[in-house]
Amino acid sequence: MLPDRSPGASGVLTLGDATANPVGRMLCAGLDYDPTAEQLLYRLLPDVLIVRAHQLAGQQLLQHLLAGILDESDSPGAGAETVRLRAFELASVLGLRLALATTDTGLGRAIRNPRLAPALVAINTHFEQSWTVPTLAGLSGMSESTFHPRVHRHGRH
Fold first, then answer.
1. Which residues contact 156 (CB under 8 A, 6 or more apart)?
2. b or e along 32-57 (b: 16 or more beta carbons within 10 Å of the residue's beta carbon)?
3. Average pLDDT for runs of 10 along the chain of length 157
């Protein structure tokens, strides 16, 4: 949508005739990560994350944050670009949390599973370690015989 954007740039696209009858506005930002520090979880995420208005029901922090980004775009203050970028970073985390909470993929179900989540967090925050099934099972408070089928079941979908 913003093919010529520079890393970290953000903007608001007005849909329809901006002056006469706008249909809506779309917040856009490109968050770039250092590929050498990229964690496995980032590689599993979609290239584009779309959060539709109806999905925001009950997501007060995300609703207020998105409204604040629009306000900042309409009336930018000092350091507006930095403020928008940091706000978009938080919005991306909240949007990902919302997407994972509502998606029915194996990754979404696994992260929502309180027994598997500790192992996934460990793998993605300490990726330099050589993880074993016994160690990950222990982090999850399960035996190997219980842990392995659960991980395998979530990984197939």
1. 106
2. eeeeeeeeebeeeeeeeeebeeeeee
3. 65 79 78 60 63 85 91 85 86 80 63 76 77 89 85 57
SS (H, E, C) the chain: CCCCCCCCCEEEEEEEECCCEEEEEEEEECCCCCHHHCCHHHHHCCCCCCCCHHHHCCCHHHHHHHHHHHHHHHCCCCCHHHHHHHHHHHHHHHHHHHHHHHCCCHHHHHHHCCCCHHHHHHHHHCCCCCCCHHHHHHHCCCCHHHHHHHHHHHHCC
Please give the pLDDT value at position 45: 60
